[in-house]
Amino acid sequence: xxxxxxxxxxxxxxxxxxxxxxxxxxxxxxxxxxxxxxxxxxxxxxxxxxxxxxxxxxxxxxxxxxxxxxxxxxxxxxxxxxxxxxxxxxxxxxxxxxxxxxxxxxxxxxxxxxxxxxxxxxxxxxxxxxxxxxxxxxxxxxxxxxxxxxxxxxxxxxxxxxxxxxxxxxxxxxxxxxxxxxxxxxxxxxxxxxxxxxxxxxxxxxxxxxxxxxxxxxxxxxxxxxxxxxxxxxxxxxxxxxxxxxxxxxxxxxxxxxxxxxxxxxxxxxxxxxxxxxxxxxxxxxxxxxxxxxxxxxxxxxxxxxxxxxxxxxxxxxxxxxxxxxxxxxxxxxxxxxxxxxxxxxxxxxxxxxxxxxxxxxxxxxxxxxxxxxxxxxxxxxxxxxxxxxxxxxxxxxxxxxxxxxxxxxxxxxxxxxxxxxxxxxxxxxxxxxxxxxxxxxxxxxxxxxxxxxxxxxxxxxxxxxxxxxxxxxxxxxxxxxxxxxxxxxxxxxxxxxxxxxxxxxxxxxxxxxxxxxxxxxxxxxxxxxxxxxxxxxxxxxxxxxxxxxxxxxxxxxxxxxxxxxxxxxxxxxxxxxxxxxxxxxxxxxxxxxxxxxxxxxxxxxxxxxxxxxxxxxxxxxxxxxxxxxxxxxxxxxxxxxxxxxxxxxxxxxxxxxxxxxxxxxxxxxxxxxxxxxxxxxxxxxxxxxxxxxxxxxxxxxxxxxxxxxxxxxxxxxxxxxxxxxxxxxxxxxxxxxxxxxxxxxxxxxxxxxxxxxxxxxxxxxxxxxxxxxxxxxxxxxxxxxxxxxxxxxxxxxxxxxxxxxxxxxxxxxxxxxxxxxxxxxxxxxxxxxxxxxxxxxxxxxxxxxxxxxxxxxxxxxxxxxxxxxxxxxxxxxxxxxxxxxxxxxxxxxxxxxxxxxxxxxxxxxxxxxxxxxxxxxxxxxxxxxxxxxxxxxxxxxxxxxxxxxxxxxxxxxxx
Amino acid sequence: xxxxxxxxxxxxxxxxxxxxxxxxxxxxxxxxxxxxxxxxxxxxxxxxxxxxxxxxxxxxxxxxxxxxxxxxxxxxxxxxxxxxxxxxxxxxxxxxxxxxxxxxxxxxxxxxxxxxxxxxxxxxxxxxxxxxxxxxxxxxxxxxxxxxxxxxxxxxxxxxxxxxxxxxxxxxxxxxxxxxxxxxxxxxxxxxxxxxxxxxxxxxxxxxxxxxxxxxxxxxxxxxxxxxxxxxxxxxxxxxxxxxxxxxxxxxxxxxxxxxxxxxxxxxxxxxxxxxxxxxxxxxxxxxxxxxxxxxxxxxxxxxxxxxxxxxxxxxxxxxxxxxxxxxxxxxxxxxxxxxxxxxxxxxxxxxxxxxxxxxxxxxxxxxxxxxxxxxxxxxxxxxxxxxxxxxxxxxxxxxxxxxxxxxxxxxxxxxxxxxxxxxxxxxxxxxxxxxxxxxxxxxxxxxxxx
Lengths: 960, 451
Description:
The complex is a heterodimer.
Chain A: H1 2-17, E1 28-36, E2 47-50, E3 55-58, E4 64-67, E5 73-80, E6 87-93, E7 96-99, E8 102-104, E9 114-118, E10 121-124, E11 132-135, H2 137-141, H3 149-153, E12 160-164, E13 173-177, E14 190-193, E15 196-197, E16 202-203, E17 213-214, E18 224-230, H4 233-236, E19 247-252, E20 263-275, H5 288-294, E21 298-310, E22 314-326, E23 333-348, E24 351-365, H6 376-381, H7 396-401, E25 403-419, E26 425-444, E27 458-482, E28 485-508, E29 523-547, E30 551-562, E31 571-582, E32 593-607, E33 617-622, E34 629-635, E35 643-656, E36 660-679, E37 689-712, E38 717-733, E39 740-741, E40 747-749, E41 757-768, E42 774-787, E43 793-803, E44 807-817, E45 820-823, H8 824-831, H9 836-846, H10 853-863, E46 874-876, E47 879-890, H11 892-896, E48 906-920, E49 941-942, E50 950-959
Parallel strand pairs in A: 1-7, 1-8, 14-19, 45-49
Antiparallel strand pairs in A: 1-4, 2-3, 2-5, 5-6, 9-10, 11-18, 12-13, 14-15, 16-17, 18-19, 20-21, 20-50, 21-22, 22-23, 23-24, 24-25, 25-26, 26-27, 27-28, 28-29, 29-30, 30-31, 31-32, 32-35, 33-34, 35-36, 36-37, 37-38, 38-43, 39-40, 40-41, 41-42, 43-44, 44-47, 45-46, 47-48, 48-50
Chain B: H1 2-26, E1 35-36, H2 46-71, E2 75-76, H3 87-93, H4 108-133, H5 140-164, E3 165-166, H6 180-187, H7 195-199, H8 204-216, H9 221-238, H10 241-249, E4 259-261, H11 270-275, E5 279-280, E6 283-284, H12 287-294, E7 304-306, E8 319-321, E9 331-334, H13 336-349, H14 356-365, H15 378-388, H16 395-401, E10 408-409, E11 422-423, E12 430-431, H17 434-439, H18 441-444
Parallel strand pairs in B: 3-12
Antiparallel strand pairs in B: 2-6, 4-9, 7-8, 10-11
Helix pairs in contact in B: 2-4, 2-5, 4-5, 5-8, 8-9, 9-10, 9-13, 10-13, 13-14, 13-15
């Protein structure tokens, strides 16, 4: 193995060392300013590029640039700046000083934004053939502080749902991408940061209910420049296996060249509070006050400093961030520190070296919740003791005394070399590393009674280390075939290796509350370890053609290999093809139509079988009083192959009136050879779910975004972004197998109905005997589809209003419709006698005479609240949320006009809030919950799960 | 020319990488917590596999025994107990009253016994297949040991699957619409209604041949006596009194150690977490405290203690079982006392030879309890078995055999919803679960191919 790594490393080195050539001579100078054509504002950091020379300069704080040593002649000079339409002009350079002042128009619809369209492809939206959604993170983090990815992405991208698995700070994040991939896997996308495929697991352990520590919570959103999302196989085909649920590509901030190698420093602090916002939903419990009382106000403090700058040859960005955030339950907090240092070096014109390094130290305390007798919510929601604060199962002081803290140190590092040995040939080599070590300590001190250990105390220690390497090597050659017809060829390889080690130890019987080392425990309870070493490799190619910016074609493919138990590695080829047609460059369009593009793309990706899925039969050791014995741990399927998912996507993009941008996509996907984990009849003796390639899913959906710049002037502007998505995925093939149910037998994979739909016998009403006495619910004999936990319709509305030039107001509303949730919380509250409606109905019912209209009416209501039939607890859960509001004022102009301007370059103040208002049909605490964490296939089930909190905050930012 | 060379090199490197990918991805480090089946075809691994079969007996039996005692009337789910919260225990305790569609539900507590029980059966069968496969390499003694374990525990697993689980309810309001006893009279006890037996080719006839095979290689006479006691129990439950008597005569003898499942903290006795200091969800029916009230010497065999007051939400005391006080408490499966009581019953009630009173009194004397007065009647047999086989998972069969299934779930008003005096549900065994119904085509079509 090491030989091969060494060989690969040598290849990387070769790319670094090849072709260090000479430097050209210079004879002229071009200088000037770059400003906003609408407002006249100087643009700091705009790029000026002399196309023929592939050389240029950035603008400084005053929007000024200078390019020296230009040979006399006539050149195409390109002026560009993020968020503005680029401008290319022909300039004749004469000996000595030459001047040109450029005025750039705002790119209101983001048409020129460069996005990632493939594993080694970046292009502008103008000519991309696939739908790629970009979140300009830096724009949002400027005024608002985000806890994690779910807050930053949620509601901003059509067709991408991102939500935390619960309302506790630091828990996992769940993505719902389009109509989902196939039936295999966990439905989560690949996540890359600066080319590093990162670990996005959720780390669980005993207790905690269904919520674990989310490894994505280590990431500091203030470091993020942009997020590109490839939502399905049509776009993500070159990411190959495991890309079936899309790819999230996060790019962190990088330095930009400042005048005279200058330095820009920004310091920022955010403070805020979190609170329980759903008191209106607790009235349903007899213990309403106890439920409300269990929540507290959580504090939020964040401090950050970043510096960036550089010159033509080297640029850097570095930041330090400390965030302390309390949840609204006791014992829930996250204390995170992030350090980042990114460097870009340009030692030669043909060589670029980019280094990204991020280190995080994260301490997360998570209280138990969900299905747990030491969870706060369970103890108050299932305790009909009244409003006196009675805890149902475990005393409050005992729960408060438990310490459960996870500490994770994590390093994310990548090195990327770009080398251009000859004109138009670009070689890229990169290595990325994600290494983390996590330790979880759960201590239940002696002296408090807790189910399980009793009063003797318990300690659980988990150690987990995860290392992931991503190796990328590719070559891109751009060339002109004939006049106006250009092409590029890409060939590359991507390797991935993951090594995961974990071990835990659990003991009970601690004599002193002050000594809790694991060795001081009397009773050994359990210990174990896990080890996984996994590799994936892919070879890919892509051929692109561009005919006069009118027709853009691309074809490509990837051959993937993956490690697995068994004699043969799963190997599969994934093709792709796409086309875009720029109608605005072909046809005479009305004046109001600035841009019109049609696109179509087809791609295939897959879902790997589980690492052990190909094994015939695996054995494990089990401890017992007889000694350690062998038991069958897993029965696999040696014939198993990767699942294949095909997607066809059509899109239309248009800019109208210079103010309105429309982007619409329709997609259809087919999953075949889906890996279905069959539950053999228990009488077969097989205790695990056995994987087979028999499943199929068909999904389709529509995504549309509308960007509107209602008006824009130097002092005032108003923008809207409206997004809507529809999706539906239906199971089409289970190979004739029986329906596959979740662990609670309420959700199903069944041919002909939506994936994971709730499928249960429905209560029709009440049954009465001949005497008119209520004898129970009248229930359908057969189960039927009730609804899906995946919303069929989602959307958002964002408004950005700027007034008085420096005052900005941002608001985001998002919603979901045609969504159902299984309210297991209410089911248990009823069973435990804590449901107010049922208690009142029972009290009324006891005094009624059979046969009367009121008796029958109450009986009917009781039938629909009978918890023996879970269909009664499946509720419509459409929701709409005022997700985010922020008001910001930028004092920079004011400061620059005062003496303070000598010391401070910029200043701003923002106030805002999140989850400010919710309206929903769902009767539970919140519709955005799932009791089984961020990774399981159980969806839309609420079981004593923490609702998201409402948050208020303010941010002060100063630049030097 | 330079361009051409570079492109050629790139294509060459890519080609090499393609060829190397397959090797590279397979060259990973071995897992440490599992191994592949083929590696266990090694004589040195057979003891490991034998232990695995024994271990799963303990894992399964403690779970099934608890459920059986709750299905019957020895344990009750009394929600005045602070930690009695599992609806699954409530359902089992009430014989699934009010569950609705009696063939479409899942009870995870039952499933957590039923699934590993069948897995254990597969382990035992695998052991027999494996030793046959590598017989030539095996030491004869090790072969015999493995053959005994595979056959004995394979039979034991089949006994549990066949005798404890049923596929349709036979009580009031059950799908068949007949009163319990009429239904049982017509369709038989749980074993006759067990779809799994039909479906999985595990008819009772499979148990006896395995016991015979185990007997042939039994390591000592003690194991032979255990086998005979098991035979006697099965025949007694099936009403084959002559066969039961013949077997019981050669069953466990006075002074024999009980045949038990063994436990430790990592393979704990389930009673500790469901009915013990780990958590009290279920408690013994109140009559066991009354037995001791009536005769304090009964405290020597009906082991109870008062539950902590802090865990009881009413003023009246509640008792918890003390038969299995710790996680490591072994759990009786057969005792010589059970064998004695079977012989006594066969003599007193079924016309077989023997002195029933003497047998019963020997059992009582072993606990320091005085002799019975007034002869051995059916009532005496029922009560002696109730006390002697307390929490041994067999009361369910006595309720069926003697037609004494209680009509109500006992309980008291207290914390939360009351279950006091509620009629029991329709089941007279442990229901086969939804996953078996969904995934076993033979349930609906027992005469189908492969069933």
